[in-house]
Amino acid sequence: MSPAGEPRGKEEGTPAAKWTGTVSIKAVPGLTGNGREARAVKAGGDSRQSGSGGRDVALMGLLVAIGTLSAHVLGVPIGVARVFPVQHGINVLSAVWLGPGRAVLVALVISALRNALGTGTPLAFPGSVFGALLAGLAYRATGRPGAAVLGELVGTDVVGSAAAYWLASQVLGQQPAALTLALSFMASAGVGAAVAYWIVRSLRPLGR
Description:
Largest sheet: 2 strands, antiparallel
Structural class: mainly alpha
CATH class: Mainly Alpha
Mean pLDDT: 78
Number of helices: 6
Distance between the termini: 81 Å
Oligomer: single chain
Strand order of the largest sheet: 1-2
């Protein structure tokens, strides 16, 4: 002990406590650098999402334009239907690039415009939307373009042709040959989906 009765640290064998002078201060969002960085990161993410959405809308518009304009020269009338291989190719492309919901929307808009311009029939709706939907769902589940092609074929050849036959016979008052309708849908979907598969595989090395 020192004369004043205070500990002498190491001289008495007991270390004296030392104050390091360090004070912990929590970062306040909006005032510190971390807060500014967090807002910058969030803003960057929002801008990227907005840019991606803009590109998707532009791509949807491009596909709709191709599908609408090419119907004037590539649509083939078979019985009560007007088969259109380009539509089925667009179904596969939009399923892979845009997802099932937007693929269906693209198919609906193209079908509506074709009917308005006289290059399609009401059978364009069941002949396109089911293939687009199943192609999109199949690709989402597997990530394989081949699955999108299979979904397009099943959606068009099986579901689409059955729905088109019902629409023609029960709503439009026509009596199409069921086998002819199914075979025409199958041929149209097969050609369009095969071309789309080649396009997807060709563009993958480019990062699309």
